Amino acid sequence: LRHIFLLQTGMGNEQSDLTPATLTKVNEVFAMFDVDGSQAIDKNEAVKHWKTAFGKISAREFFNQVDIDNDGQITLEEFQRFWQAVKAAGHTEAEIQNELGNIMKGESWVGFNDLPKVK
Questions:
Q1: Closest-CA residue to 100 (of 38, 49, 47)
Q2: What's the CA angle centered on 67, arms 119 and 27, to 5 degrees?
Q3: Residue 53 to residues 59, 62, 68, 105, 107, Cα–Cα distance (Å)
Q4: What is the per-residue pLDDT across 57-99, written as a single tens digit (0 to 9) for each?
């Protein structure tokens, strides 16, 4: 329940706050997706990012995990809160930075199965 509360309220704690270096990388990855500068990632932008044969699958899974309010777009706040929840679930900053690096290279979205689903 704590993870759900953190995601819904945007409140963090010492364990879920990202370091400035990781937060910068989160913001850089967000900007890579948000090619039109709308401050939101839509599904078309996500599919275009993943140019592989599995691009649509990666985009769908990405939205299933990160689009908290299910409005069809991911805001910077949602994206940051997702990575805070990843850290709060016990993943290290190194794991987060590694996954962000993989996303930057266009590798398929792998997601995190141990995170609570936000309603």
A1: 49
A2: 130
A3: 11, 15, 26, 15, 11
A4: 999 999 999 999 999 999 999 999 999 999 998 899 999 999 9
